[in-house]
Amino acid sequence: MILLLAAACGGGQAPAPTTQSDPRHQVVTETVVKNFDPIQFDDSGVLSPASKANLDAVAETLQGNPGIRLVEVQGRLPPDESHAIERAGRAQERAETVVAYLVGKQVDAARLVAKGYPDPV
Length: 121
Description:
Strand content: 15-25%
Structural class: alpha+beta
Mean pLDDT: 74
Helix content: 25-40%
Low-confidence stretches: 7-23
Strand order of the largest sheet: 2-3-1-4-5
Largest sheet: 5 strands, mixed
Shape: globular
Number of strands: 5
Order of helices and strands: EEEHEHE
Radius of gyration: 14 Å
């Protein structure tokens, strides 16, 4: 699961939620940009095509809300047989993949920080 948390906004106003003809399964407030569409990876950690489309919408949201100054991209994995440290490492790699993708979509890297967590929210 990838969760995006906006850590700082400017101007004291909540960013406007995005509205377009396509459904944006996102919530945008002063402190949270939450994407409800799953960001999925294949076994080798490559983003799925559907996830890229979801992240394109996230990039557009961030570009349209410059007051969101810092976003923590949280990578979280469900518990499994592996050790928590291994899960945290994989979650970190996935969060970094999402950050790299968003930077490739012209979101300023200074606004993004990747953080992996070993457990789901």
